[in-house]
Amino acid sequence: MTQPSIEQSPLFTRWKDPISGVESLVLSKRVAPLQKSFYFTNTSLTDDGRYLWLYCAFPPSGDAYYGNQLAVVDFEEQTLRHYPETLFSDASPYVDKVTGEIYWVSGLTIWKRGPLPNDPTIRVGDFPAELANNRRPLRIATHLTLSADKKSFAIDALIGADCFVGDLPIDGTTPFRLWKKFDRCYNHAQFSPTDPNLILMAQDGWFDPATGEPGTTEDRMWLLERGKKERPVCPDAPLSSDWRGHEWWDADGIHVWFIDYRKGTEKVNILTGERTNVWPSGHTHSHNDQKSQYLVGDICPTGSEFRVAFFNIKSGREISIVTEMPPLSFPRRAYHVHPHPQFCLNDQYICYTTNVFGTVDVALVSVDQLIERTS
Questions:
Q1: Based on C-alpha coordinates, what's the Rg of the chain?
Q2: Are 178 and 166 in contact (CB under 8 A)?
Q3: 146 alpha carbon, distance to own chain's centre
Q4: DSSP 6
């Protein structure tokens, strides 16, 4: 698969930011009223550039936690296919970047299917019914991440007032393995990219399922090693989820990136505790390339509409991909319509959600043009 198949796709319409001049490709073919990019921690484009998976929503049904389905762009056939059987919870879908298969969570079960119309839907594994104890789960996985040995998904199940963190092997036979049970919310569990026995997780805002009263949080970011006690990522500088969040692993497995909502995008060395403020403007969601030379983020520090920007770490220069998103006709929170930009296709593109045409759409922007404009 070559890059021109994306650049020349008839499924996309070119849009140029009127101020920065950066050009994006916006998916104009539709199978749903809302078509969104994946949550930024999980790539949606395969490594050969053939398949681009996306979220679909059909207002007023569903919401950000349970109401999205999946569709896939096939750049070889230049088609967009919608699969309604993929109704998923939270932001759980995970794309196998080699095969193009998609995994998702529904109820207590992880499912998968391939990108082609006749591919079967296959049950991968289940969260134990005895732990659920006749209760409906709020989630089984916030967003599925695969272990470094490619054998298991990280699980951060929230059922009633109980939180279960562990891993569920993808072999179809090995049962769920519980690492730790908590009496408060931990979510955004992400397997280390280098250590299959280490999970990054977030102590997030939560509400008592019986009373609706808000629970307390001590610190946002935690590490859980198999068989050991959880420990904070920044033990000398605890901050609750009100001040710190949207964390993700660096590819080196040594650094964790996160947002300090007061100071911007930062990273911390989990071995030494050294913290670095890298991008003061990156206040909402950010993502880095595999070599940590560049950052992309959606920025909404004051409650106004988002802008999407690219930051060249080496040069210290920034450019807007979208200078300002126009207002939506409904609250963004209802279906989690945030840009959530992410590097993908071996860092050749950035994928994000946009509404510059008045509809909620998936967009791609080539990284080369951004590097050229910020070097």
A1: 20
A2: yes
A3: 13
A4: H
| C-alpha–C-alpha distance, residues 240 and 7, integer Å | 42
Nearest to 205 by CA among 214, 193, 213: 214
Per DSSP, the residues of 191-203 read E-SS-TTEEEEEE
* Strand order across the 275-279 sheet: 244-249, 255-260, 264-269, 275-279
Residues near 81 by Cβ (< 8 Å), separated by ≥ 6?
A: 31, 71, 72, 74, 115, 117
Confidence bin at 1 (pLDDT 50/70/90)? very low
CB 82 within 8 A of CB 115: no
Using CA atoms, how far apart are residues 12 and 15, in angstroms rounded to an integer?
A: 9
Provide the token pair at 77: 């056939």
Distance of CA 190 to the CA centre of its chain: 10
Tens of pLDDT, residue by residue over 151-207, are 999 999 999 999 999 999 999 999 999 999 999 999 999 999 999 999 999 998 888
Q: Which helix (H) or strand (E) covers residue 373, if one does?
A: helix 367-374
Phi first, then psi: give them for residue 309, nearest 5 degrees.
Answer: -135, 155
Measured distance CA(34)–CA(81) in Å, rounded:
14
Confidence class for position 44, pLDDT limits 50, 70, 90: very high
The three-class DSSP label of residue 131 is helix
**Chain position carrying tokens 């891993």:** 167
* Beta strands across the sheet bearing 162-169: 152-159, 162-169, 177-182
Strand partners, 266: 258, 277
Compute the distance between CA of residue 361 and CA of residue 364 in angstroms, rounded to an integer: 10
DSSP bridge pairs for 34: 57, 360
Q: Are 295 and 352 in contact (CB under 8 A)?
A: no
Q: How far apart are CA 167 and CA 147, in angstroms?
A: 9
| DSSP code for 309 | E
Instruction: Give yes or no for a contact between 44 and 104, defined as CB atoms under 8 angstroms apart.
Output: no
**pTM for the structure as a whole:** 0.96
If DSSP codes are grouped into helix, strand and coil, which group holds residue 5?
A: helix
Does residue 45 come out as left (phi exceeding 0), alpha (psi in the -120 to 50 range) or beta? beta
Q: Is the peptide bond before 214 cis (omega within 30 degrees of 0)?
A: no
Three-state secondary structure string covering 353-370: EECCCCCEEEEEEEHHHH
